[in-house]
Design a protein that fits this description.
737 residues, eight-stranded mixed β-sheet, mainly alpha
């Protein structure tokens, strides 16, 4: 409980991304927590230690620090890197265009695509354990030499060996499950549990009472994804072993049951989540009972399989499974792109969103690409280690004593596509920035001509610095072609799996086309380079995760990604890091409601904090709204969120937000700010002209007589040091009821 004797009017500051300290938010060295806990709390200057920096006379300043929700626990922050593909897939659905999602088709496609990522994760574990270790390495003396931890497996027949190694993918699936549930318990579920989100998100709005409570949906999806992962393992195991003691007929029946269970989980992903908890529990009990029985029978069948030694080549069926999943991802991405583009073309009114409305397939392609990079790196690095440093290839086979140890051809194509995506993406980025530089500089020149007319020659250098700063701040708007090029490259890269379906790898294709074998060798080395480039990127992420575990500063850097990616509820992939807004928004709403009982409240949101502030106001009751005002600064609400998330932060939502608080809203922005900007375009109908307040930055080019250096270029931070900030606080406080 807040025991701090304060003034009636309160300025409640909400910080942006990167997990800054309460001392920095309040611009005061001594603070004390007055509400909340270590994960997220409300702070004020300690009584008797002075006022907060930038405070307005007669207004108490309080800070809401939520950064520890994503950058607090070392293990949670580091483990989130493992969940990056799942986070990106969950983010995809929220970038959908505005308008009605007819038949819920976008949600269906995104959920099924997320299911393929779970299958990819399990197949990666299967590729390392069952294929590389159990099937390809153990039978070969050269591979198991000097490896006593593998040598004992040679005495175990192939069937029981694969059954034993199947426990590793099951353990990996359990680890991912545990990471998600453990991190969710740290701060999720804050607020009324009875208000659950609807399973049908076609008309879902930020104003819905249960928008942020995703426990019901996540719980359902988590169970289905685990069943899908176990089903993927069962099918891979049965495909790789002989019929054994149960006979060929029993083996086929069991295989059909495993495939049917896998198909049932995909169907459940495509269907809306049951709104009735009783019905959901009934379905999940049946699904889990069938899964447990089928898994036990599959492991038993493998244990009783004929003692036939492993053959040469890959685990039977594994190549086809890997290619099938990649093919499914490619088809889903193409369909998702077509559906999204068609919906964007028929969208009514509003500003056309960035990326031509293709944010959803672009983010989905990013999720698939990162998942493929993780999978290829894991499989190739293990194969490289087992091969004693040699990378196998059909053109350059290993010596017979070592064994082929060949990963699936689909991963070769993935490595080649990944290298092409990096090179082409870098080239498109360079060309885009180069071509836009003149336009950005012209815009910057017009701004400084207006702000600093008649500049003396002595300040010419300073003027050039300001112009370049403004020009660089416009880079964000120029990245659309780069992301569209990435979507095209990713789709073409997935299309190459068609060659894998017919058993042709990159080097084999080059060998057939080149004839003399030279092209195949060159392409083999290029593919090797792609494998290493992708591997180095993944290894960099692993090092970053280790550093996040050891260093609080690195955790804050990593948390920037999670602050942006885990803002939205998990309605697509349940293994994604949990949604911190599930606590932050209800907690802010509860605190604001309590403070308004004593006086007016100005919610002051900086950067991403303005997004949290906007979401909070949309959940406040009308009786509270009469005493609430909003001050945003460095805000990406229109520049980023309205364009990337038009279905949720589009012009209609922003106008609704202003109307709810009687347009007691001021937004401060600078041309030098690379993130923030105005909320409403000039002349926007129904919008008061005084909402957006532009601040000149720097305040002056010349050195003040009382100073020794010219005023700094402040850009994105700070804002509270300018007089316009205090003027806005005073005006909003006076206008509140």
């Amino acid at each position: 409980m807040d025991e701090t004797p304060g003034r009636d009017a309160v300025e409640l500051r909400v910080h942006g991304i990167s997990g800054v300290t309460a001392e920095r938010i309040l611009d005061h060295p001594i603070v004390t927590r007055v509400a909340g806990n270590t994960h997220a709390g409300f702070f004020r200057p300690r009584p008797g230690s002075g006022t907060a920096g930038g405070a307005t006379d007669g207004v108490a300043v309080e800070a809401y620090r939520w950064g520890s929700l994503t950058a607090g626990a070392a293990v949670r922050t580091a483990s989130m890197l493992l969940l990056l593909p799942f986070m990106l897939s969950n983010l995809a659905i929220w970038l959908r265009p505005a308008g009605h999602d007819r038949w819920g088709l976008l949600g269906l496609l995104c959920r099924v695509l997320a299911g393929t990522l779970t299958a990819t994760f399990v197949l990666a574990a299967v590729g390392v354990t069952l294929d590389l270790v159990g099937w390809q390495c153990v039978p070969y003396p050269g591979c198991r030499a000097s490896r006593p931890y593998l040598a004992w497996l040679h005495a175990v027949p192939a069937g029981p060996r694969l059954a034993l190694l199947s426990l590793v993918p099951l353990l990996a699936l359990w680890v991912v499950w545990a990471i998600g549930t453990r991190s969710a318990r740290a701060f999720e579920g804050f607020g009324p549990l009875a208000a659950q989100p609807r399973s049908d998100d076609r008309d879902q709005s930020l104003t819905d009472a249960g928008f942020w409570q995703d426990a019901h949906v996540t719980g359902w999806l988590r169970q289905v994804h685990v069943v899908l992962g176990v089903g993927t393992l069962n099918v891979a195991l049965l495909a790789g072993v002989a019929p054994g003691g149960i006979g060929a007929t029993g083996h086929v029946v069991l295989f059909v049951i495993a495939v049917g269970l896998l198909g049932a989980s995909v169907v459940l992903l495509a269907l809306p989540v049951p709104t009735s908890p009783v019905r959901a529990r009934r379905i999940l009990r049946t699904l889990w009972a069938t899964t447990v029985v089928a898994t036990v029978l599959c492991l038993g069948s493998a244990t009783l399989a004929d003692a036939t030694p492993s053959g040469s080549g890959k685990l039977p069926g594994y190549e086809g499974a890997a290619a099938g999943v990649v093919a499914a991802q490619g088809v889903l991405l193409v369909v998702l792109t077509v559906v999204t583009y068609t919906r964007q073309r028929v969208a009514e009114g509003g500003e056309r969103p960035v990326l031509r409305g293709l944010g959803t397939p672009i983010m989905a392609a990013a999720a698939v690409s990162v998942g493929a990079a993780f999978t290829a790196t894991l499989v190739y690095r293990v194969a490289d280690a087992l091969d004693h440093g040699d990378i196998p290839d059909p053109i350059r086979p290993n010596p017979p004593i070592v064994g082929p140890l060949e990963p699936p051809v689909a991963y070769w194509w993935a490595a080649l596509a990944g290298l092409a995506a990096l090179l082409i993406g870098a080239a498109v980025t360079w060309v885009t920035l180069l071509l836009s530089r003149r336009r950005r500089r012209r815009l910057a020149a017009r701004i400084i001509e207006r702000d600093y007319p008649g500049v003396p020659a002595a300040d010419a250098h300073r003027l050039r610095v300001v112009r370049e700063t403004i020009a660089r701040s416009r880079v964000t708007e120029e990245l659309g072609p780069v992301l569209l090029a990435f979507l095209l490259i990713a789709s073409l890269g997935l299309a190459t799996v068609a060659f894998d379906v017919i058993g042709i790898g990159p080097t084999q294709l080059a060998d057939r086309l080149g004839g003399d074998g030279g092209a195949a060798v060159v392409l083999a080395y290029v593919t090797d380079a792609g494998v290493w480039v992708i591997s180095l990127l993944v290894i960099f992420l692993l090092i970053l995760g280790f550093r996040a575990y050891r260093s609080a500063q690195t955790r804050r850097v990593v948390a920037v990604l999670w602050d942006l990616g885990t803002f939205w509820p998990r309605t697509v992939h349940p293994f994604a890091p949990p949604c911190y807004a599930a606590r932050a928004v209800p907690e802010l709403a509860k605190r604001v409601t309590g403070l308004t009982a004593r006086g007016p409240v100005v919610i002051s949101g900086h950067s991403h904090g303005s997004v949290l502030a906007a979401a909070t106001i949309l959940h406040l009751p009308p009786a509270v709204l009469t005493r609430v005002s909003l001050l945003t600064y460095g805000s990406p609400l229109r520049r980023t969120y309205a364009r990337l998330y038009p279905a949720y932060f589009g012009p209609r939502t922003l106008h609704d937000l202003g109307g709810r608080i009687g347009w007691r809203w001021r937004n401060l922005w600078r041309d030098t700010d690379p993130i923030g900007g105005p909320i409403f375009p000039p002349g926007s109908p129904g919008t008061p002209p005084d909402v957006d307040i532009r601040l000149r930055d720097p305040r002056s080019l010349t050195i003040d007589p009382a100073d020794t250096v010219p005023p700094p270029i402040e850009g994105h931070w700070p804002y509270h040091t300018q007089a316009a900030y205090q003027v806005a606080i005073r005006e909003l406080t006076d206008r509140s009821g």
